[in-house]
Amino acid sequence: MPVITVNWWQGNDREARRELVAGITDVVTRVSGCPDDAVTVIVRDVDPDHWGKGGRLVDESTLPRSLR
Amino acid sequence: MPVITVNWWQGNDREARRELVAGITDVVTRVSGCPDDAVTVIVRDVDPDHWGKGGRLVDESTLPRSLR
Amino acid sequence: MPVITVNWWQGNDREARRELVAGITDVVTRVSGCPDDAVTVIVRDVDPDHWGKGGRLVDESTLPRSLR
Amino acid sequence: MPVITVNWWQGNDREARRELVAGITDVVTRVSGCPDDAVTVIVRDVDPDHWGKGGRLVDESTLPRSLR
Amino acid sequence: MPVITVNWWQGNDREARRELVAGITDVVTRVSGCPDDAVTVIVRDVDPDHWGKGGRLVDESTLPRSLR
Amino acid sequence: MPVITVNWWQGNDREARRELVAGITDVVTRVSGCPDDAVTVIVRDVDPDHWGKGGRLVDESTLPRSLR
What is the CATH number of the domain that holds B32? Predict the structure, then answer.
C-alpha cells in the first residue's frame, strides 16, 4: 500500500520507467508519510491504436497533443 | 474526463476498435453532456486463456456463450 | 465478458446510469457480436476533488471544459 | 458479477492460471453465495521491468521477496 | 506483488471481507509460490444501481442470478 | 493521456490530494515529455477494512508498516 497504476503510451524505455517509478514513489511517500517499500507502481504501455480520445483512435486523431 | 476502460477478448481488429471508441464516446457525451474531446477510452485485448468464468479458463469452458 | 468500467464525475443520477449502461451495451454487442447478457458495465462516480487534470484538482482547475 | 482482477508477474503457465481461476472462484462463491457461473477472473501478467516497488523496478530491486 | 482487486456488490460485511482476503491470499500464494506478506487484496463494494448487466442496471434486471 | 490511478488509504485531505496530483503530474510530464494538461490522476481512498495484506484486513494486521 499504496498501489499506483500508470497507463501511458508505448515507446517509453527502461530508463523512463525507472525514473517514473522513482519519481512517483518519492511523491507518494512525501505526501502520505508511508515508507518507500510500501509503494507499488504498475506501468502499462498502451498501443495508440488501443487508446481513444475525442471519439477516434489516437493514432488517427487530429487533436492537438494536449487534448489527447 | 470521463475515462472508460474496455476489457474484451483478443481478435477484434482496428476497424472494430474504431467503431467501439466512436460509439462509446457518442453514448457518454450524450448522457453526461461533456464534449467529445474530454472522453478517453482504453481498450484491453484479453487472451481467453487469461480470462476465467465459472471457475474455468474461458477457452476450456463448456458454458453457453451468454454466460461467459 | 466484456467488462467495461466507466469513471466519470459525481452528479449523474439513476436515469443517466440507465442510459449509459443501455447505450454502451448496445455499442459493444454490435461491434463484438456477443450477446447482451454477456456485457458487464461498472460505473464509478468520482468526486471532482479526487480527480486531477493539468496538475490540479479539477474543482480548482482553470482549464476549459474539453481539457479536463 | 463479481469481477476479480489479478496482477501478478509473468512466468505463470496455463496450469497455474487454471488453478488460480478455480481457487479464486471457489473462495468468492463460498463467501458471497453467488453461483460459479457469475464469477469473472481476469489475469494480467506484468513484466517485472514494468513493476515498481520501493522506488525501483522489481528486477533491479534489492528488497527481500516478501517486500516486493 | 501480486495485487488482486475484487469488485462485488455492497452488503458483504467485515467477516465476509476477512474470509475473502484470507481465502484469496491462500490461493495466490499456493499457485504462485510467493509469501503471504507479498499479496495485496483491494475490495470494492459496488452499488447494484452502478452495475449494469444485459443492458440494464442490475437492481432492475430480470436476468436469472447466474447471468448477472 | 496518460491516466494514473492512485489507491491509498482514507484519511488524506484535500491538501494532500492537491500535492499528490501536482507531484505526480510533474514526474509524468518530465519523464514522458507530454504537456501538463494531458495528465489525468484519479485518487481512490480505500478503507483499511477493505484492504488485505498478508491474508488479513489491514486494520487487523500485525505486519510492520513497510509490509502493509
Answer: 3.30.429.10
